[in-house]
Amino acid sequence: MPEHPDVAVIGGGIIGLTAAYFLARAGLSVELLDRGDLGREASWAGAGIIPPGDPDRARSPADKLRGIGAERFPELSAELRELTGIDNGYRRGGAIEFLSADDADVVEVWRTEGIAFERLSPADARRLEPLGAVEGDAYLLPGCAQVRNPRHLRALVGARTPRRRRGSRKARASPACGWRTAEPFARVGSCSRRARGAGRFCVSSGRRRRCSPCAGRSRCSAGRRRRAY
Ligand SMILES: Cc1cc2nc3c(=O)[nH]c(=O)nc-3n(C[C@H](O)[C@H](O)[C@H](O)COP(=O)(O)OP(=O)(O)OC[C@H]3O[C@@H](n4cnc5c(N)ncnc54)[C@H](O)[C@@H]3O)c2cc1C
After folding, report:
1. Gap from CA of 208 to ligand 1 centroid (Å)
2. Is 40 helix (H, G, I), strand (E, B) or coil?
């Protein structure tokens, strides 16, 4: 394997793990960098609701992304189950959306994308969801799906092992602190390790925060002199 991977993915939440999975599947060598345990931040806490969508009829990039996710999740789930034996719990069980007067555009988006929905009477909404408080207008979305996030993340992490044989590298515990671009590779700096290079970088580190402990400065809190990236 060459010294530098084709792609370094910074941040191993659901976004980074999924990107790394598909990049490795496409035959690229991938290194995953995370400052902590893979998939244990926002992705672990998520409820796993996968709203329906249609990428071909979506009007905004975000709606298109939602549509692609909804469309490809069943196939990805089956693929991960095949590779790892882990059932991520993906089910298309439907959902009830409660809309307020401010959400008038939501129904319009559903219509534009051809998403199936049914307006429920308050009595029907209470019958279907007896434990919930019924506020606003209730709509049944039969195409809404759900996945068990911790299981899905375990499957994505587990799927890296067979992929490693074909080029993806072991994930490293490494906070990324900054950047330095130098031909032929861009490098990512780390307050705890030497800078590493890669052909390309995919930044998927979730909410933007400054690196701890060095907060992106050239001197880390341990007092060691570091190069400013
Ligand atoms: C309570 C809750 C419920 C939710 N429910 C849903 C839902 O039902 N449906 C839905 O679609 N979305 C839901 N979300 C949103 C969804 O969980 C997030 O949008 C998604 O998990 C973001 O994934 P991520 O990979 O971008 O971020 P994260 O999961 O936060 O992953 C970022 C990773 O980057 C690493 N990192 C950060 N900084 C650095 C650094 N400097 N160097 C190296 N690594 C770094 C972190 O350690 C982490 O592992 C929910 C979120 C919450 C909190």
Report:
1. 11
2. coil
Residues 160 and 199 in one domain: yes
CA of 6 to the centre of ligand 1 (A): 24
Q: Are 191 and 225 in contact (CB under 8 A)?
A: no
Evaluate whether residue 77 is within a structural domain.
Answer: no
Residues 199, 200, 205: CA angle, nearest 5 degrees: 140
Residues 46 and 53 sit within 8 Å (Cβ to Cβ): no
Copy the structure tokens of residue 133.
């408080």
Phi-psi category of residue 94: left, alpha or beta, with phi > 0 → left and psi -120 to 50 → alpha: left
* pLDDT of 186 strictly over 60: no
The per-residue pLDDT for range 30-58, each reduced to its tens digit, is 999 888 899 999 999 999 999 999 999 99
Q: How far is the CA of 29 from the centre of ligand 1 (A)?
A: 24
Tell me whether residue 190 is in a domain: yes
Q: What is the number of domains present in the chain? A: 2
Three-state secondary structure call for residue 177: strand
SS3 63: helix
Check whether residue 142 and residue 31 sit in a common domain: no
pTM: 0.84
For 34, the domain range is: 7-48+148-203
Domain-located, residue 69: no
Task: Look up residue 227 and give its DSSP letter.
Answer: -
Q: How far apart are CA 20 and CA 35, in angstroms?
A: 16
Ligand 1 proximal residues by C-beta, below 6 Å: 10-16, 33-36, 41-43, 45-49, 175-176, 204-206, 211
The residue whose CA has the least distance to atom 3 of ligand 1 is 46
